[in-house]
Structures are given as structure tokens and as C-alpha cells.
Inverse folding.
């Protein structure tokens, strides 16, 4: 089985986890590294180079062309709308969904925080309007190096990525109920062609509870839209759903905090939240210079 992956250290570690599980099932694998637009264009925010899908498109194309059989992704990078012929064949057991703030000295001295996420920026400003959120792109090592060089007092990273890489940094976890994470954060997914034989093999890696949680989050995300342009967080666990849409400056928030029993209920909640947050979504697009046809 040919397995596609990005070339970052984190992507390779995540792919190794999948290949190890398949090898233990007696399936031979070949790893194929594919460069994506998100990897090669690191000097500008994601919304300026196409948003959420920039880490995924090249791998999607390789699957559809038959160059690889499947690809391993951080599930939060997978866009809402997917090309015909592809399926999410496996969702692995979720690691920590939380964000982690790493800092150089102490939390009390933090003034400049590195992040290019509109969600993280808005949540930080809501928590402490006195901080400055400064753009920061690049892989985990690059971000840590820039903080160490004094460009930032602190940086925000996904805790799951640090855990997978075996990196320990001074800092603390940001509670997911207050700093609601990106939908599907902490989850590894395997995307493949819609081939029954591939699906049968890869389904052995699927974790039912995690799939239920992340599909609940994606249902809300689909109703909200916005991608990485709008500051939004969505987190579901064991039937409990938290979702929020923020203004870019963090001063205004629309939020739901409810129990749901089905994907349809999650969609209903997403539609209600969208109606309440429509002005925030449109405002974010306008301020970021995104055209109306991308809404």
C-alpha cells in the first residue's frame, strides 16, 4: 500500500504510526513524501494562500491520479468539501485536542505571542486584550527556534503535536472549554480512494468514539463555513458540543454549549449558531479581503 504524507517531521511521525499499525496487520507499505503549497509558502498567513486545504490538495490529487493509495493527515487540515472519489477511511483515536501555550520565562511576562491562526489570535485577545498576537508560520521546530531567538515571548501549538514529537516545553495547556480548539484538532485521519478493498483494510484502524466526536464537529463546521478565515472553535466529546464564533479582535462571541445525540442535531445547532454569528463571519471575510463567492 502506497501511503502519501507531507515531509514535515510531525507528518512523518503521524504516518509512521499508521504504517506501523498496517505492518503489524501483515500489510506491506511504501511511504511517498509529497510537497504541498502549505509547506512551501510559509511567509504569509494561511488565508492568503488558500486557507485550510493548502496542506491537503497535492495529496488528494496524488490519490485520484493513482500515484498513492491513501494519505495521512492531521484531520483538522482536511477541508469541509472533498473531491468526489475520496473517503476518510480511518480516524485514529484522538490525542489531546487542546492548545498549548509555551513561553520563554513566565506567563506573567508574556506580551508578544506567535500564531497565524485567526481563532487563536481572537481567543488570546478575548482573554487578555493587552497582548500582541504576531504572525508565525512554519513547522514546530521553526516556531520553537523563533521563540528561543526572542522574536516572541510565547507561542501557541497543538498539544497533540508536541506529544507525538516527544517535545517538552515550559508552558501550560489551554482548557478546551475556554480556548475552544479547531474542529478535529488532535486527530489523525487516513484518506483513501473510495475503493472497497482499501476501505476494508483501513477500517481496522478506525476508532469509533473519536469518529463520532470529530464527525459531530465537522457537521457544525459545514454549517458554519468560514474555514480558517473566521475565528471559530468546535469541540465535541461524548455527546457534549461546544462551538463558538468570534470577531477578529476577540471582543464579540457567539457560542453554544449543549448536549447532542446525533449528527442531525449537531447540524441544527450549527445552523442556529450560523444565523446568530452571520455578521461576525461576513465581517471576518471583509476585513481579510476574501471575496464574497468564497463564503
Amino acid at each position: 500500500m502506497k501511503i502519501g504524507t507531507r515531509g514535515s517531521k510531525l507528518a512523518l511521525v503521524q504516518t509512521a504510526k499508521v504504517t506501523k499499525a498496517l505492518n503489524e496487520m501483515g500489510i506491506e507499505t511504501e511511504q511517498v513524501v509529497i510537497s504541498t503549497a502549505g509547506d512551501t509558502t510559509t511567509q504569509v498567513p494561511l488565508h492568503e494562500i488558500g486557507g485550510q486545504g493548502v496542506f491537503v490538495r497535492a495529496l488528494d490529487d496524488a490519490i485520484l491520479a493513482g500515484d498513492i493509495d491513501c494519505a495521512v493527515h492531521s484531520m483538522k487540515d482536511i477541508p469541509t468539501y472533498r473531491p468526489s472519489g475520496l473517503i476518510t477511511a480511518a480516524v485514529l483515536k484522538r490525542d489531546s485536542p487542546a492548545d498549548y501555550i509555551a513561553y520563554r520565562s513566565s506567563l506573567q511576562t508574556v506580551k508578544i505571542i506567535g500564531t497565524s491562526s485567526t481563532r487563536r489570535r481572537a481567543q488570546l485577545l478575548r482573554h487578555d486584550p493587552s497582548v500582541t498576537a504576531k504572525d508565525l508560520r512554519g513547522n514546530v521546530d521553526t516556531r520553537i527556534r523563533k521563540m528561543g531567538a526572542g522574536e516572541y515571548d510565547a507561542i501557541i501549538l497543538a498539544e497533540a503535536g508536541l506529544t507525538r514529537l516527544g517535545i517538552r516545553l515550559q508552558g501550560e495547556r489551554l482548557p478546551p472549554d475556554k480556548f475552544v480548539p479547531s474542529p478535529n484538532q488532535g486527530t489523525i485521519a487516513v484518506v483513501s480512494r473510495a475503493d472497497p478493498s482499501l476501505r476494508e483494510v483501513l477500517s481496522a484502524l478506525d476508532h469509533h468514539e473519536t469518529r463520532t466526536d470529530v464527525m459531530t464537529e465537522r457537521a457544525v463546521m459545514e454549517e458554519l463555513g468560514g474555514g480558517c478565515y473566521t475565528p471559530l472553535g468546535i469541540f465535541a466529546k461524548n455527546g457534549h458540543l461546544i462551538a463558538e464564533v468570534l470577531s477578529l479582535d476577540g471582543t464579540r462571541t457567539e457560542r453554544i454549549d449543549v448536549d447532542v445525540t446525533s449528527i442531525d442535531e449537531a447540524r441544527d445547532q450549527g445552523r442556529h449558531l450560523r444565523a446568530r454569528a452571520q455578521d461576525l463571519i461576513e465581517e471576518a471575510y471583509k476585513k481579510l479581503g476574501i471575496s464574497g463567492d468564497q463564503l
Remarks:
- The domain at 207-288 is CATH 3.30.160.40 (Double Stranded RNA Binding Domain).
- The first helix runs from residue 9 to 24.
- Residues 39-51 have pLDDT under 50 and may be disordered.
- The two ends are 37 Å apart (CA to CA).
